[in-house]
Amino acid sequence: MRQLSLFPSLNTEPPRSEPRLAARQPEAELGPSRIHVVPDGASLVMASRLSSLLREPVEVELTDNAWTMVSYRRVSGRLHFRLHHMFARAHEPVMRALAGFTGKNRRAHGRAIDEYVRQHRDLIKSSAPRADTPLAARGQVHDLLDIFAALNARHFDNQVQARIGWGRRAPGGRRRSIKMGVYFHDHKIIRIHPALDDQRVPRHFVEMVVFHEMLHQVIPPSVDSAGRRSVHGNEFRAAERTFPGYERARAWERAHLHLLLRQRS
Ligand SMILES: [Zn+2]
């Protein structure tokens, strides 16, 4: 995603329920597309730490689940945790809260975990659209399909395969931040914020936002040996700067951010 401010929690997508803690996870949520495979290192280190805190065998599975941040259950004598990968970087107090969450004082530990999740919610993948979501690409001012096709031919050798469309307008009010675009890896869908479909927003700026989202398909998120997930790593940022309109678009963004933050109608 491409984000304009320091308030990642305020996005303009349809409301969804908050990420939550769950002691036992309903099977329906265990869809394979939600599981993000990360190297074993981080989960083994966490399992060993939790195991010594709880004094019993522990297994840890790190996930990319957007809904359930923490769940655990007993599987043949072992405590099996499923944890969002954000916990791979958690320090001792949070590890203690995770361990404590399985015991009697769940409430207090749950609050500590909630607080950690709140601080790291930018690592939670946006709720994915359905694969058959109808996408409107032709706006009142900008035609996203036209922009996508031109960029694909010019910069990607026509290798990017994705659907693209405008996001829906959210109810009014002044925004503190705006997520200009988002790319859903699982569905290969790009959504662009409808505030950009405005005659005051130049095409070259929309092009940079679309280019950014297309780049996400070419350079997927990477995970290092400590389990840290990087969406806009060095390689991504370097490739983004090769876009010929990059400096111009960034300058426009700095000068006109207020236009995007003010809700039309
Ligand atoms: Zn991005």
Throw out a few tags for this protein.
alpha/beta; Zincin-like; four-stranded mixed β-sheet; disordered N terminus; binds zinc ion
Textual characterization of the structure:
With 265 residues, the chain is α/β, with parallel strands linked by helices. It has 2 domains: 2-10 and 127-261, Zincin-like (2-Layer Sandwich); 20-123, no CATH class. 34% of the residues lie in helices and 16% in strands. It has a 4-stranded mixed beta sheet, covered by helices on one side. A hairpin with a 2-residue loop joins strand 4 and strand 5. The two termini are 25 Å apart. The structure holds zinc ion. The site of zinc ion (ZN) has 5 residues, from helix 5.
**Cα-atom Rg, whole angstroms?**
21 Å
C-alpha end-to-end distance: 25 Å
Number of folding domains?
2
Mean pLDDT: 80
Described by strand count, sense and barrel closure, the largest sheet is: 4 strands, mixed
In CATH, the topology of the largest domain is named Zincin-like
Class from helix and strand fractions: alpha/beta
Extract low-pLDDT stretches: 3-19, 23-39
| Gross geometry | elongated
- Cofactors and ligands present? zinc ion
